[in-house]
Amino acid sequence: MKKNYIQRLEKRSNSLVKRNSLTTGVDDATILNFALTLEHLEDVWYKMALEKFTAADFEAAGYTGLYPLLEQVSRDESAHVGFLTAALKAAGATPVEACNYSFPLTDVKSFLSLSQIVEGVGVSAYLGAAGAIHEDDYVTAAGSILTVEARHNAFVRFLNHYTPFPQPNDTPLSATNVVTIVTPFFESCPEGSAPTIMGKSALNVSTTEFTLGGTLEVTPANASAVPAGKTVYCGFASGLDAAFTEWNDGSCPIPTENITVGQTYVVVTTGPSLEDKYTLAGPAIIDTTPQNTSVTIPALSSAASGASSAAETTATGEAASASASPAGLAASTSGAVSGKQMAGAAGLFAALVGGLAVLL
C-alpha cells in the first residue's frame, strides 16, 4: 500500500510540487517539508531519551513495562520521517534533513511531561496545516500521520494521569505558532533545512496551576513586543473555540466560557483575534485538565494472553505484580507527575523561547 502510494506521487510529481494551496499560496511540498521538520525533531527526541534512560530507569520511576511501548513510539516517528522523505522525493521535492537539537532530558518524569506537550503540538501542527493542502494525496499523507500522533498524545496523557481525550475537538495551530514553540530546541541545521518561518516573542508563564476562572501570570519575553498604552488581550485557543480576556500588567483571567480542559494555547494579541497578524507574543501552553485519571484493568487470562495471568494493576500506581512485557503495563502509571510538574514542562517552552531569535 505504501509503495503504491509513493509510485503514484512519482507519476504526478510535476503537479504536486508546482500546485499552490488555494488558501496560503504555499505549495503542498513546502507544507509537507514543514511537517518533516517536526517529525525529525520528534524522532530525535525519542531516540535521545531512550538512549539516555534505560528500561531500568523507567522501572525505578514506577513505569513497569513501559519501555517497549516507548520504543514503538520511537519507531513510529522514524517511520514518519522515512515516509515523508520518500513521498517528497517521489514528488520531485528536496526533503529537509534533521538538525542538531538541544533537549532538556533530566529524568523520566520530566521526559514524559514534555513528551505530552510535544505530541500535543504535533497534533495541532498537522491539524493547522490540513486546510492549506490542496492535493488529495498530500492530505492523505498528512492525515495518516496525524491520527497516529493523536494516539501517541493520548497514551502519554494517560501515563501522566490526564484524561487521554480531554476535548471533543483538537486545536489547530498556525505554522508561525508552531515555530515559536519549537525553535529553542534547534541548535544548527544543514543548509536549507532550518525553519524559514518567523516566529513571535515567547511568553513566560509563572503560574503553576491552571484553573478555569483563575489568574494566569504571563509576560512576553521581549517586553517591547507589547506597545505601551494599547489595549491587549490574552487569546485562548481551545479545540475549535477561542476566548479572550484583557491582559493587564502581566496577568489575565483564564476564561470560563469557550475554553475546555486539555492542552490550550495562549497568545497576547491586539485582536481580540488569534490570527498571526494580531499576535504580539506566544503561544504559551497551559492545561486545565484535572490530573486525576484512574483506571483499573483486569489481567488477561492465560488462554487469552498465552502467558501466565498477572494481578490487576491500577492507574493510581499500586501494581500487585510487575511484568516486563508491554502488556504488563496495563493501566499502571505509578510514576505520575504532578500538575505543577506539567506546568513546569509547559513553562519550559516559554523559558527556552525567551530571548532567542528564530533560527533562519
UniProtKB/TrEMBL annotation:
SUPFAM superfamilies: Ferritin-like. InterPro entries: Ferritin-like, Ferritin-like_SF, Pigment-catalase-like. Coiled coil: none annotated. It holds the Pfam family Ferritin_2. This is Ferritin-like domain-containing protein.
